[in-house]
Write a structure and sequence with these properties.
By secondary structure, the chain is α/β, with parallel strands linked by helices. The chain is built from 23 helices and twelve strands. The relative contact order is 0.10.
Length: 549
């Protein structure tokens, strides 16, 4: 495998790494993420509108737009604003500038198309594919590729998606770039890691992807690619965190000896809970005990979990059966009350519809041992049906909106989730402290149950009970830890996104109001302040360490 990286000069304005700290005041959410197209656009547009004369901020805006275009090259607004800032700062090489100007002429705004919108809403992949065959063949082919990119990636027929990309891209350089991303999402290995001698307008993206391909088998090579890229864009929070982890966290650490109870509860999901248990026992859990609570199921769950107990052994799988559904918070508390669980050092909660990699427990436990100051450890959650799509990463708090808007019920406590629904670029695979993590798979420090408390049953049947406990732990000085180098697959969508009926939406809003009512404005503002200070401190410390490498 080659260690050579594409030349990333001529893409970004100069940015002194020491100026990253200067972004914390005017742009506090910069440290939360420099990924996700909506976050990149919001940061850049905010600078252009609010601080056009600030050279440091404008350089940061131009840099993040240039990287955003590398990731989404057919997004016309990003391309237009990038060209405008280049005219002001003059940082693009002549060849790159010429390519962007030519591409801009081919990207035309698309009028609303109710037919396409209906196909997307219905999730009809076959009809959507047929529609796109006609759309990409027209003069707006490149614009349609941008409009439909996520739907193209989701097509199970990679060859069909590739044909649509080739038909609509309009030039071989763009087609090669888009097909490379399509193959990465479909798990198709690149033919070679060697880079051609010709300069590419997508060299930064190619440099990042070369590191990503090397990461699993040759971390020093991955680090070399990413060091070069990070030097060109030291403002990139996600890449800085990922590079630091690559250099400092040992891969494939063994399963620690700390006794851990593995806990799951389920209601009327017989097939899914058995699939989850099979995944648990196929992974490396050592001799750690597994407990499953049947939460008053009326389907085949009781018989299924009894059969699983016979299959995996009553000494390894322990079943608790309740006559009625007591809801998620009480089910969690019931499991945590068991003497065998209380005797453990950690408790790992799993949803009843997850699929796990073999080393999931080792990664969670090793992360917890690296950060004893954190009370809960979580991970990255992917969509099982579309594993290239992320459901969640780390959660943080945002400032309350000013005036009356900040007092609206349901809007006082604003949670920042920086990746929901986005395609997985690999740039959320970092480790850092945070306010909260997904309850889909998280590890609790059992020693904190008495001081922090268990789950609040006022959030029955479900929603926000895990966030509430994470907040209480944060207030007690024990934040969560996001271990993004572990990804698990969630078979169903998150319950928040499944809500469709007025009753479901009302329940979620009601629980959000309950959550907000537990904390006054001063507490919320103090949490936001401490959350942002924690994230900025972590980022700047790691950036300073990388500068010494």
């Amino acid at each position: 495998m080659s260690n050579s990286s594409p030349d990333v000069m001529g893409f970004f304005p100069e940015f002194d790494p020491r100026n990253l700290a200067n972004l914390a005041g005017p742009l506090p959410t910069w440290a939360l993420s420099t990924e996700s197209s909506w976050q990149q656009w919001g940061l850049a547009e905010g600078i252009v509108r609010g601080a056009p004369g600030n050279q440091v901020l404008i350089s940061a805006a131009a840099g993040i737009l240039s990287w955003s275009w590398q990731e989404r090259p057919l997004h016309a607004p990003t391309l237009a604003l990038l060209i405008t800032l280049d005219a002001q700062l003059g940082f693009l090489s002549p060849d790159n500038r010429a390519y962007l100007l030519a591409l801009k002429k081919r990207l035309r705004p698309l009028p609303p198309n109710p037919t396409w919108e209906a196909l997307v809403a219905e999730g009809d992949a076959a009809s959507a594919s047929a529609f796109l065959e006609q759309a990409v063949a027209g003069q707006n082919g490149a614009s349609w590729l941008d409009e439909a990119w996520e739907q193209l990636v989701r097509l199970t027929d990679r060859d069909k998606a590739a044909a649509l990309v080739s038909a609509g891209s309009g030039d071989p350089v763009l087609a090669e770039r888009l097909l490379a991303e399509l193959d990465a999402h479909h798990g198709v290995s690149a033919d070679s890691d060697e880079t051609s001698g010709a300069a590419s307008p997508f060299a930064p993206w190619q440099c990042y992807m070369a590191g990503r391909r090397a990461f699993q088998t040759d971390r020093p090579a991955a680090a070399q690619h990413w060091k070069r890229l990070q030097a060109a864009m030291p403002w990139n929070a996600n890449l800085t965190l990922l590079l630091w982890d690559t250099l400092n966290i040992a891969p494939h650490a063994p399963l620690p000896q700390e006794r851990t109870a593995i806990l799951a509860y389920s209601w009327n999901k017989a097939e899914l809970i058995i699939q989850t248990l099979e995944s648990v026992f196929a992974s490396d859990i050592g001799d750690n005990p597994v407990f499953v609570l049947d939460n008053g199921s009326t389907d085949e769950t009781p018989q299924a979990v009894r059969a699983a107990c016979d299959r995996f052994g009553a000494d390894r799988l322990h079943v608790v059966t309740l006559p009625v559904n007591v809801g998620a918070p009480a089910a969690r508390n019931w499991l945590l009350s068991l003497p065998e669980v209380r005797a453990c050092r950690f408790a790992a909660f799993l949803d009843d519809d997850v699929l796990l990699p073999r080393d999931w427990l080792a990664k969670l436990l090793n992360a917890a041992l690296r950060h004893p100051e954190c009370g809960t450890v979580g991970c990255s959650i992917r969509d099982h049906e579309h594993p290239h799509a992320l459901q969640s990463a780390d959660y943080h708090l945002l400032h309350r909106l000013p005036g009356e808007a900040g007092q609206e019920p349901g809007d006082r406590l604003r949670v920042f989730n920086n990746c929901t629904g986005t395609l997985d670029s690999g740039l959320f695979a970092y480790e850092r402290p945070c306010l909260s993590v997904s309850g889909c798979c998280h590890l609790l420090d059992v020693s904190l149950l008495d001081s922090v408390g268990v789950f609040d049953v006022r959030f029955t049947p479900t929603q926000f009970d895990d966030l509430d406990r994470d907040i209480r732990s944060f207030l007690a000085g024990r934040p969560c830890l996001y271990a993004g180098h572990l990804s698990i697959d969630h078979v169903q969508r998150s319950s928040l996104r499944q809500a469709s009926s007025p009753a479901q939406v009302a329940h979620i809003l009601g629980n959000k109001i309950k959550l907000e009512a537990k904390y006054d404005d001063r507490q919320i503002d103090d949490m936001v302040k401490k959350n942002l200070e924690m994230v900025w401190r972590d980022l700047l410390t790691k950036q300073a360490a990388l500068a010494q490498e």
